[in-house]
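Q: Predict the assembly, please.
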Amino acid sequence: MGGQVLRPAFPGRRTLLVVIKNAVRYLVRDAARNWVRNLGSTAPALGSMTILLLLSGIAGLGWYTLRSATARASADAAVLHVYLRDDAKQADVDTLRQNLAGNPRVVRVTYVSKADALKKAARRPGLPDLTAVADPNPFPASFDLMVRSVQDVGGLAGSVQHDPAVDPLLPTSYEPGAYQRLQQLLTWVGVAGLVLMLLLAFVAVTVTANSVRAAIHSRRDELMIMQLVGARRWMVRGPFLVEGALTGGAAGIIAGLVTLIVGVSVVGIGAANFAQIAPGLTTGVAILAGAVVLLVGVGLGSGSSLLGVRRHLET
Amino acid sequence: MSPLLEFYGVARSFGERVALDDVNFALERGEFAFLVGPTGAGKTTLLKLVNREIRPTAGEVWIDGVAAHTLKSTRVAELRRRVGVVFQDFKLLPRLTAVENVSFGLQVTDLRISDQEALDRAQDALDAVGLGDRADAFPAELSGGQQQRVAIARALAPQPPMLVADEPTGNLDLETAWQVMTLLQDVSRFGTAVLVATHNVEIVKRLQRRVLTLVEGRLVRDQPAGRVGRLAWAVKS
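A: Predicted assembly structure:
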């Protein structure tokens, strides 16, 4: 009869378990308990950090949308539509095509007939109804030119506007300065957003550091005893970093969820109305933004606490 | 074997005020010594140098082979685990029982100590100071003398080679003070060096242990054990 095999715990592993248990108790559990107990004094830090993260999340989504729009505009800016007269002679159209194809500034020439233009328009948000009632077809035939450089678009548009095959009322899709204006807007929004975020971050860090100061003050006896009996520095400071991380994490969860809800709502509204309210914004991007907000919150909370601990906790 | 505690030409100033000036002495392992002197003589400053709460302005402080005067702040905890500290106001955590106060001190300095081991060692330390039967009492339920015993148990539980006590009997009546001093004397008999700062002339005279006298920051007299007669500072003050 075989006896039962006893497998006593390996001492090293047991020691490791004891260390983990004690570390969790003194760093995490006590920190969480103190955090809950001091929620009243932590509230200003929690509030300011939530506002900061919320604004950052929303601004981040806005900036991402604007960047996507700029990228799209940049790609569109290199395409020039040369609109043809409805009554243009085939010989004039062929000549124009040959001239454009031979132009070194042009990479590719594509002919789009009136019927193709109507089909394209029907695919655009908000236009299907219009194309259904429009009779006769109001969209002109065109040559779509892929231009080698965005800088060449203006010159090329000027060179074809008096061609006999080109529509004299709306010769091309060229709109001077549109792309540059978008770029400028993106830069200004970025700078303004950054300044605002830095200001808010400064407020949040200062408020959090002060709440850590209050927490240190309320536990000064315990901390002094820990220091005097020889507790390691990370044992003394650790709980405050965890408390800061909890503050940042809580703020991050609130702000991250709101960011996610806003992002998903915008995507949903856009889909419902068949309109692109925020180009490039998808549910995945909204989830990513929410997660980033949460992580930034945890990092900011811990960092602010570290700052407060370094400033206010003597060793 | 080299002394456990060594002071070489130690000075400490706070701005213009000189708290300690050219202090030289050594304390052997298991030795018991009193540190006496009038208020403001520099006793607490000297004890803070031993525990590396402050650094000397000049000179060297060696504790158990560690140069406390040059010790980096990241390594201070290491030194403090070799020096038990007892205060006049006990500094016990009111929300913890006596045994928890002692085990707390053990576990925050060494995370490898399990709950059971910490409680066992804390109970042993309380037994050693005669408070084994009050282990589950909260500080508020203990007398001053009992609280000081718990503080001594906490300082001794990690078995440090040295114990410093700053006015440990300052808040106690003479009878209780005498019991606490007897306990500290017993501690030194088990090999722990003990340095006690006190104002209590009666106890110093009765115990007849080594006496270091500080006056205005200077070590003016070093009387060996058994030869303690007149205490100059006590007469002056």
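The first helix of chain A runs from residue 11 to 37. Chain A has a mean pLDDT of 82.
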